[in-house]
Amino acid sequence: MAPAIATNLCCVRCQTPTLVKAEPQTLRCHTCNTTYPIVHGVPILFADVVIEPTAPPQLETIVTTVITYQGLPPDQAIQDTLSAIFSKKYGFSDFLIDVESQQYLDRIASSQVTTTIAPPDPDHAVSLKATIKSFVPTPLRQKLRQLRSKLQPPDPDPVSVPPAPLKYEWLGDYLPRTMRSNHCFTGNVRLQNRGNQPIVSEGKYPVRLAYHWQTAHGERLSDIPEHRTPLPIALQPDQSITLPMLIETPNTPGKYQLQLCLVQEHVCWHEGNGQTISITITTEPPVDRSAIWHVGEVIPSYHDDHVKALDHLRSQLQTLGTDRPKILEIGGNARPMLFCGIPGELYNLDVDVHGLQIGNLMDETIKQNPDGITFICADANAIPFPDGYFDCITMFASLHHFPNLRTTLRSLAQKIQPDGFLAMLCEPVGHFYGTEIDPSFREELLKGVNEQSFSLPEYAAIFQDAGLVPDRIIIDGYSLKAFLKKSPAT
User: Fold this and answer.
1) Span 253-277, mean pLDDT?
2) Alpha carbon separation from 123 to 25, 65, 69, 111, 317 (Å, rounded)
3) Inter-axis angle of helices 456-465 and 405-414, to 10 degrees?
4) Which residue in 72, 136, 81 sits closest to 104, CA to CA?
5) Rounded average pLDDT over 283-310
6) What is the DSSP letter of 223?
7) What are the Cα distances from residue 97, in Å, to 9, 124, 174, 237, 442?
């Protein structure tokens, strides 16, 4: 039997340390009176969630497929529960959370859910994909439909008609503030389209990321190559993306300014919303804290990589000195890795309500973990538990989906005990450039999912900025497994 609804949850609006169960399907904060629904055993700790009834087409097909994929018993009670689960849809005001909240259905539709049994035949999977995609359109598709009537064709003659300035915002970057002279590299930046037109790197007048080098006094230097970086997708209005820019540094050491901006080829530089960063150029390479990390061989499959990460997690948990650690997994969806027999007081936090409800049903029905797992829908940047509550917080291939890794890691660090640890496992390593990306990666970007990948030096800098120190680092080819503890200074 899965655990009862946790009695130690905090209100995410006012941070009151306990919520009370006002009625069977509602939690209420006794301080600010905010209520949170409990739907099919999963508390939804978002004050702005919208729950609507829906009548999905081919509901019976969806239910049958979920039973097959998840290995649930095909009895009538399970079928009725699944029908009730998929007869509700959920909406969130945050765009990225709304996109991520639909991942379970999308993975089912794409035949990508990890299972212990064979998936349905390919023809069935294709037809189901079309069915579910029509049932749950992504927020990006909805937004595109709303914007279609407003979109204007590109300026056919930029010479005779002054171009409209692009509206965009640099949300942050992962560029080092000390760089080596005469060096070409890629570094991640994060950009948001703030206008009402897509920003596109294709066509006659493509828009690309670019930069200028300036002296410390703001004088532009014209003798340094100004490389262009294309966008891998058309960046839609309000959409954000993290991508590596190609940058070449000056030959002469000194203090400089690096101005990041967009350029529309054959039209103009769009510098009005650019960002300027102070950079020190040296003859010696800057300190790379990841240089001591050993890079091993690539593990051939996604599944095997996760199995190895789970073994490392079990080993690390033994250092805590307790048989029943308090563990929070983030991003486990319907099948958290905690299902694999890890003992303790266990929680799985995600934003995908359907996935969590299926996981809760599996935990109750086929007892995936003897200790049971509590499934909670909440934002990982506002974890509804007191500070210092957990011995371990872990993610498997989930950290890179967060828009600001530094902010997320700082928030997570507050929730672990002084001798606890964070386990960020199976994180992708490396940079793509322009449109040279894996098709599945690009497909996720097109759906609005916040896909991104970082270099090892970037990860090292992110951990330090978040007040964390690596306790153990394992790198299997392009997969990072990092066990992190709080810095003594924090």
Assistant:
1) 94
2) 39, 13, 16, 11, 43
3) 50
4) 136
5) 93
6) S
7) 21, 29, 23, 17, 19
Interacting residues of 69 by C-beta distance below 8 A, sequence separation 6+: 108, 113, 115, 117, 119
Q: Which residues of 87-107 are buried (b: 16+ CB within 10 A; e: fewer)?
A: eebbbbeebbbbbbbbbbbbb
Residue with tokens 């629904």, as numbered in its chain = 37
- The pTM (predicted TM-score) of the whole model is 0.87
Q: Dihedrals φ, ψ of 206, to 5°?
A: -70, 150
| Residue 39 DSSP SS3 | strand
The pair of structure tokens assigned to 91 is 């909406």
pLDDT in tens, 129-181: 333 333 334 444 344 334 333 333 343 344 444 467 789 999 999 999 999 99
Say which DSSP state 388 is in.
T
Q: Are 256 and 279 in contact, with CB atoms under 8 Å apart?
A: yes
Residue 420 C-beta-side C-alpha neighbours within 13 Å: 21
Q: Is the dihedral of CA 251, 254, 260, 263 positive or negative?
A: negative
Distance CA 238, CA 275 (A): 18
Task: Give the C-alpha separation, 428 to 188, whole Å.
Answer: 14
Three-state DSSP state, 111: coil
Helix then strand then coil, % of the chain, to nearest 5 = 25, 30, 45
Three-state secondary structure of 404-432: CHHHHHHHHHHCEEEEEEEEEEEEEECCC
Rounded (10°) CA dihedral 352, 353, 359, 360: 150
- 39 forms beta bridges with 42
166-204 burial, b at 16+ Cβ within 10 Å, e below that, comes to bbbebebbbbbeebeeeeebbbbbbbbbebebbbbbeee
